[in-house]
Each structure stands twice: as structure tokens, then as C-alpha cells.
């Protein structure tokens, strides 16, 4: 079950940007920025972003490896 994200109206973000950034740095998870009641952006800490990018790269590499034939996988493994 996914966690309900924190929501920050764009007006609150404008008025107290420093506090919103502190919330992100505290690791509370991503923040959804809304404008006129609709989600317009998602903000996350740089640490969370880097972690997601690393996981995405790992998944890309795993997908490439699984697309190879078994013989290609063995040959690549022996070469490393």
C-alpha cells in the first residue's frame, strides 16, 4: 500500500520556501505541489532523487542482461 504524499499549495511554497526545503531534507518523502487544487509538480530531496536514478540504472542493466541469450550471459560473465 502506497503512502499518501504530502501536499503543499504553491502559495505556501512561495511564502515559506525554506520550510518546504527543510521538510524535503528531513526525508519526509516527496511533496506534491498543487496549484488551484491540482497537482502540478513533485519535489523530492536530492538524496531520494539520486537513489531513484541509481535504482533505475540497475533495472536498465538487469533488463539488458535478461534480454541476452543464455550463451551470451555466460560469455559476458566469464569476460568480467
**DSSP, total strands:** 3
Strand order of the largest sheet: 1-2-3
The CATH topology annotation reads as: YefM-like fold
Strand residue percentage: 15-25%
Shape: elongated
CATH class descriptor = Alpha Beta
Number of helices: 4
Rg over alpha carbons: 20 Å
> CATH-wise, what's the superfamily?
YefM-like domain
Output the structural class.
alpha+beta
What is the straight-line distance between the termini?
39 Å
Low-confidence stretches: none
Count of all domains:
1
Order of helices and strands: EHHEEHH
Helix content: 55-70%
The overall pLDDT average reads 85
Quick rundown:
The chain is α+β, with helices and mostly antiparallel strands and 80 residues long.
Descriptive overview:
The chain has a single domain, classed as 3-Layer(aba) Sandwich (YefM-like fold), CATH 3.40.1620.10. The protein is 59% helix and 19% strand. It contains four helices and three strands. The protein has helices spanning 10-15, 17-25, 46-67, 70-79; strands at residues 6-9, 31-35, 38-43. The protein starts with 5 loop residues before the first strand and ends with a helix.
